[in-house]
Write a structure and sequence with these properties.
It contains 18 helices and 23 strands. It is α+β, with helices and mostly antiparallel strands and 647 residues long. The protein is elongated.
C-alpha cells in the first residue's frame, strides 16, 4: 500500500511545478499589423484598453491556439516601416501581404485564399474618371509600399501617402482628384466608418493582388507549423466563418428559387410601393439637399473662423507632425518647402527645438499646457511666441491630437521691457534730484573759493591754471548732476549752429591739466563742418567719451579724435570718431554698453554711455561702437549736417 501511495503523493507535489514549467515554456511570436486598415486590422478600445482588432488579428489568434503559442501584435501605421521591422527581426510574421513582398524580404509566403481588389475613388466633381487612362492631368494619390498588382502603372507625379484614411480625406476635401485604392474593402470600410462625404467609387476592378501570411526564415519550424495550423483551420470550417464575420456573406441561396412564386408576389407589391417611395424620395432628396447645404455652410463658417483667426493655429500629433496650420501661421512663420512633412521643431529656433518635445508630452499627459518659446519668422528673424495647447479627438477614435494656439508676443515683451526701463529712469530721476541737491552745495563752495583765490595778487601762472581747472571741473560736475536729472526728465535744449572743430577744441579745455590735453590728438578737416545742437550737452558727450578712453588706456597712450563729412547730396552728415588703443569691448557687449546700469569696469555705475546716447538721440544723431578685445575701441558719433549761408 505504501508503495502505491508514495508515488501518487510525489506526483501531486510535482504536478504544479511541471504545469508552470510548461506554461513558461510557451513560445511567443510577434506579428506586424497595420494600425488603420479595417476590416483587416485597426486600433480599437475594449474594456478601457487600446488594442488591435480585425480579420488578420482573429486569424493569427486562432492559428496561435492551434499551434500552442502566443501571438503579440505590433500596430504600425506605415507599410514600409512594417517591412523594415520584419527585416530587423522586430516582428516574426507579417499578417497578410503579397507574394512579391515575401520574395523581396526572402521570407516564406503562405496563401490564405483572399485578395486585395484595386479600385478608383474620385471626388464627386471628377466624374469623367473611370479607368487608369483617365488619370492624365489629374491630381492622383496612392499608398506607398502597398501591394499593387502589375497591371497598375502610375505616373511619377503621383502623391504617395502611408494612410488610406488621409488619402480619402484629401479626395473628399478636393485637395486631390483620384485615390488609387490598393484595397476596395479597406476604402469602403473607412468611408462607411467615418462617413466621408463627396467620394464616388468609379469604374471596374483594376486588378487583384493575392494575400498571404509572410513568415520569417529565422525559425525554420515556424512556417511549417503555421501552414499545418491553417490547413486544420480550413478543415474545421473556421476560415470561412472568419471571412463571413468580417467580409460578409452572399444572400442569394437555393431557398429563393424554391419560393419563387412568393418572391414574385412580393416583388409586384414592392413595385407598387416603389412608385410611392419614388415620389416620397424626390421630396426627401430636396430636404436632404437643403440640410446638406446648411451643413456645408456651417462647416465653411468654422473653416473661415479658424483661417481668419489673428492667432496662429496648428493641429499636431504626439511626434510634433503638423497636420494643419491656418493662414496666419503660414504667413507669419518660415515653413519648409511645400510637399514634405512639417514638424513643429522645424518652425522653432535651434535653442528651443529641444523644448518642443517636452511641451507636447506635457500637453498629451495633462490635457493642456502653456509655454513661451522662439519661432522663426518668414524673413528668418526670431519671433517670441506664447503657445497654448489642448488635446482633441483625432479622425481615428483612439488617436489623440493637440490643437495649439500661438500668439506673437515680441512686441508685448518689448513694451514690458520698456516699462521696466521707464521704472528705472524714474528711480534715476529721484536719485538725480537728491544728488543734485546734496552735491551742488559743496560744489558751489569749491567754485566760490576757487574764484576768490584767483583774484589774489602774486599768484604764479601754473597755480592760476590749476585754480581755473578746479573752477571748470566744479562747473562740469554740476553739469553732470543736471545731465543725470535730464536723463529721466529731459528739458528743452538751447539749440544753435555749431562749428565742429571749435566744439571739439572747447571741450578739450575742460580736461584740466595740460598733460591730459596733450594725450589727445586731433585730425580735423580744413573746411568748417556745421551741426545743430546744444553746445554744453555736446561738450559733455565728448568729455564722457574721452574720459572713458583714458580710463582703459595707459597714461602715455594717445587718444585720437577725428571729424569728417559723410553722406551724399541731400543726406550729408558729420561724423566724429573717438579712437583709443585700450582693452576693447567684447562683441556681445557692443550694444549693451549703451544700456543703463551696464558697466564692464569694476566699480562703474553704467550711466555714462546711457546718458551720452540719450543726448545724441535728442540731437537726431546716432552713436555706435566698433571694437576688438585687446586692440582698442572706436566710438562713432554721426549728426545731420547743417548748412550756413555765406553773408
Amino acid at each position: 500500500m505504501r508503495r502505491i501511495v508514495f508515488p501518487i503523493l510525489l506526483f501531486l507535489a510535482l504536478f504544479p511545478i511541471f504545469f508552470q514549467g510548461q506554461a513558461f515554456a510557451r513560445s511567443v511570436y510577434h506579428v506586424g499589423t497595420r494600425a488603420i486598415s479595417p476590416p483587416f486590422s485597426f486600433l480599437a478600445v475594449k474594456d478601457g484598453k487600446q488594442g488591435v482588432r480585425g480579420y488578420s488579428v482573429d486569424e493569427m489568434v486562432m492559428l496561435g491556439k492551434l499551434m500552442g503559442v502566443d501571438m503579440e501584435f505590433r500596430a504600425i501605421h506605415d507599410l514600409g516601416k512594417r517591412r523594415e521591422m520584419f527585416m530587423k527581426g522586430t516582428v516574426d510574421i507579417l499578417a497578410h501581404d503579397s507574394e512579391e513582398t515575401a520574395r523581396a524580404l526572402n521570407a516564406v509566403w503562405i496563401p490564405v485564399g483572399i485578395s486585395l481588389r484595386h479600385h478608383l475613388y474620385v471626388n464627386q466633381n471628377c466624374r469623367s474618371v473611370t479607368c487608369l487612362r483617365d488619370l492624365e492631368n489629374k491630381k492622383v494619390v496612392a499608398i506607398s509600399s502597398a501591394p499593387y498588382s502589375s497591371e497598375i502603372k502610375l505616373n511619377d507625379d503621383v502623391i504617395w501617402l502611408s494612410s488610406p484614411l488621409e488619402a480619402l480625406t484629401m479626395v473628399s476635401q478636393g485637395v486631390m482628384d483620384v485615390f488609387v485604392a490598393p484595397s476596395e474593402r479597406v476604402a469602403d470600410d473607412l468611408i462607411d466608418r467615418y462617413q466621408i462625404p463627396n467620394i464616388l467609387k468609379k469604374g471596374v476592378v483594376l486588378g487583384e493582388s493575392p494575400l498571404g501570411i509572410i513568415v520569417s526564415r529565422r525559425d525554420p519550424d515556424l512556417a511549417p507549423k503555421i501552414r499545418d495550423a491553417y490547413h486544420r483551420l480550413q478543415e474545421a470550417g473556421l476560415a470561412d466563418q472568419l471571412r463571413d464575420k468580417w467580409f460578409g456573406k452572399p444572400t442569394i441561396t437555393d431557398g429563393v428559387r424554391r419560393y419563387a412564386k412568393y418572391v414574385a408576389i412580393v416583388s409586384a407589391a414592392a413595385g407598387i410601393i416603389f412608385i410611392a417611395i419614388v415620389v416620397w424620395n424626390v421630396a426627401l432628396k430636396r430636404r436632404v439637399d437643403r440640410v446638406t447645404q446648411d451643413l456645408r455652410r456651417t462647416e465653411q463658417r468654422y473653416r473661415d473662423l479658424i483661417e481668419s483667426s489673428p492667432d496662429m493655429i496648428f493641429l499636431v500629433n504626439e511626434e510634433g507632425h503638423v497636420l494643419h496650420a491656418n493662414e496666419r501661421a503660414r504667413h507669419s512663420l518660415r515653413f519648409p518647402e511645400p510637399g514634405g512633412e512639417v514638424y513643429l521643431q522645424q518652425l522653432t529656433t535651434r535653442e528651443y527645438a529641444d523644448e518642443i518635445g517636452a511641451f507636447l508630452k506635457k500637453v498629451f499627459n495633462d490635457g493642456c499646457d502653456k509655454h513661451e518659446l522662439e519661432m522663426v519668422g518668414t524673413a528668418g528673424q526670431p519671433m517670441e511666441v506664447e503657445v497654448a495647447g489642448r488635446i482633441i479627438q483625432g479622425p481615428v477614435r483612439t488617436q489623440l491630437l493637440a490643437c495649439l494656439f500661438a500668439r506673437n508676443v515680441t512686441e508685448r515683451n518689448r513694451m514690458e521691457e520698456e516699462l521696466i526701463q521707464s521704472e528705472r529712469l524714474g528711480i534715476i530721476g529721484k536719485m538725480a534730484a537728491s544728488l543734485a541737491h546734496e552735491i551742488n552745495n559743496p560744489l558751489g563752495v569749491i567754485q566760490a573759493n576757487a574764484e576768490d583765490l584767483m583774484f589774489e595778487e602774486g599768484l604764479a601762472s601754473d597755480v592760476k591754471d590749476g585754480l581755473l581747472a578746479v573752477q571748470r571741473n566744479a562747473i562740469r560736475a554740476g553739469e553732470i548732476t543736471k545731465g543725470l536729472l535730464e536723463a529721466a526728465t529731459p528739458k528743452p535744449m538751447s539749440m544753435g549752429t555749431l562749428e565742429v572743430s571749435d566744439l571739439i577744441r572747447d571741450a578739450l579745455t575742460l580736461l584740466g591739466s595740460r598733460r591730459k590735453r596733450d594725450r589727445v590728438e586731433l585730425d580735423l578737416p580744413d573746411e568748417p563742418l556745421f551741426i545743430r545742437g546744444d553746445e554744453r550737452a555736446l561738450q559733455q558727450v565728448l568729455m564722457n567719451l574721452i574720459f572713458n578712453s583714458m580710463a582703459v588706456t595707459g597714461e602715455d597712450e594717445p587718444i585720437l579724435i577725428r571729424a569728417a563729412k559723410a553722406g551724399v547730396d541731400g543726406n550729408e552728415t558729420v561724423r566724429i570718431v573717438v579712437v583709443d588703443q585700450g582693452t576693447g569691448i567684447e562683441r556681445p557687449n557692443l550694444t549693451q554698453v549703451f544700456e543703463p546700469f551696464f558697466s564692464s569696469r569694476k566699480g562703474g555705475f553704467g550711466l555714462g554711455l546711457f546718458i551720452t546716447r540719450r543726448m545724441v538721440e535728442r540731437h537726431d544723431g546716432i552713436i555706435f561702437a566698433e571694437s576688438e578685445p585687446g586692440k582698442g575701441t572706436s566710438m562713432f558719433l554721426e549728426f545731420p549736417s547743417a548748412h550756413v549761408k555765406e553773408t
